[in-house]
Amino acid sequence: MSLAMAPMPIGAPRRVLAMTSRVLMPILVGWLMNWLPMVALAVEVIAHPSVATNRLSLVTAKAMFGMRQTRWPDGNPVRVFVLPDGHFVHQAFSKEVLNLYPYQLRQTWDRQVYSGTGQAPVEVATEEEMLARVSRTPGAIGYVRKVNVNEPVRVIPIQ
Amino acid sequence: MLLFGSMTTAAALAWDIGETVQAHGFLSQSAAHTTHNNYAGESADDVAFDLREIGGNISWQPDPDWLISAQALMRWAGETDDGDLRLDYGFVDRTLLSGPNRLGIQLGKIKNPYGFHNTTRDVAHTRPGVIMPQSIYLDRMRDFFLAAPGVSLYGEHAGQSVTFSWQANLVEPEVDDRELEFVFRLRDIPGHYQGKRSWYAQGLLEMDNGRWRLGLTLNDLGMEFSADDSSTNLRTRLLSLEHNRERWSFAAEYMLIDVANRPKSGNPDNTVEAYYLQATWRFMPRWQAYVRRDVIYFDKDDRDGAQFHASLPPPLRVLHPTYSRYAKDNTLGVRIDPSPSWSLFLEYHDVDGTAWLSPQDNPTGTTRDWDLFLIQAAYRF
Known about the structure:
The complex is a heterodimer of chains A (159) and B (381).
Chain A: H1 12-33, E1 44-47, H2 58-65, E2 79-82, H3 88-97, H4 102-113, E3 122-123, H5 127-136, E4 140-144, E5 154-155
Parallel strand pairs in A: 2-3, 2-4
Antiparallel strand pairs in A: 1-4, 1-5
Chain B: H1 2-20, E1 21-34, E2 48-63, E3 66-77, E4 81-82, E5 86-97, E6 101-111, H2 142-145, E7 147-158, E8 163-171, H3 178-184, E9 193-195, E10 198-207, E11 212-225, E12 231-244, E13 248-262, E14 270-284, E15 287-297, H4 306-311, E16 326-336, E17 342-352, E18 369-380
Antiparallel strand pairs in B: 1-2, 1-18, 2-3, 3-4, 3-5, 5-6, 6-7, 7-8, 8-10, 9-11, 10-11, 11-12, 12-13, 13-14, 14-15, 15-16, 16-17, 17-18
């Protein structure tokens, strides 16, 4: 599925249009997909290359994205990155990987953030930004649809 | 060279602190209209704008095992809350054990674990409607339940799809609130309440990845009155159940509070019975509709308030009619989130009884049957 990622001719209005569609298109697609039968998207969990963990259990992944586990198994701090609630990749990640509805994750974060018992994950707007932030933040964990072999991130299978 | 070295260290430290410090805030403004009775301002046959919240918090995680956080809150609600700036919570959290089996301790002013919603009851986005279900989260008694200085021990045991978490708090409630005198002494009298050592315990079982949530809250809260050395204890048993589906959520909470007064010669003891049932339907992305049945009886052995009313001295009978001892409410509401930061609510209540209402807002008396219309706009970051 191509999502307005085709190269745009140079020009400021076009760039604004391209930026807008990069941010708005995933939300629109997420909205449409909400009405379609679940389409498996094969979302992969990624981490900063220095993370010394080859795989994570589902329990640990849920605790990390739920902002309750703040350390990697090697003891280093976890930095969690997520896409917006309405983004179709976030919805697929939440439901297919964690087996949680996106609103459940949001409620978990809100309960912690506004009662002082935990912090919120860092929200990024696009998958490109997700790859960029995760690749340069030590201890980072996030997710994207597809990782190219030359991306400087580690793919972590969830079991 | 040395200067350059220390500057880069400072820059690195600032960057590091930036990564570990977060700030969040929220505000809401409501408009209320009632057919009779004033709710949070002069709303009867008019529109009141006296329901408002502004809050902000900051948290710092200097190390994965330490979290320091504080939140300031201003709240306006008719005659019962005037927007005083106060510390909503402020504590240090130390994780003692991390991983699937967690253990931790908190020290400071802590939000009390009480039902599903108490810890974030002043943040509009986290509420199940414009106002909290008044059966379980009666705003007239909010100071008793809200937050308190003390110590808390908590734990969590996570399995593949089942999680059990628990919390035990030893606290001293902050109860210097005039409205509590209207609730427990029926009028504003000289003197004030002071909290006594109290405790909370809560267990929460989440099954099938949180599709089912089952909670039990127990507490024993105590306060004494400065003028006559009398004391009041509230002992709560509160059962909470929630079922979450993709488009639907169902919630129910049921509570009994034994109110025990010392000395016995003062107010008679009674048992408060309260419950609500709510269904929430996410019928389109960003949209929710909800219905709620919300019931509270101040005395489950005198549900219609007749015995209570007959026992009152005549001067108190106007402000405390029989129907001030219960409230039975049907709620209909709609919520839309135009963006992750904004929420708009529209809510209608059909209420029988005035147990929610403060005599401070209704000094000339009340009407038994009344309707309440609420609109709320809320922002958060």
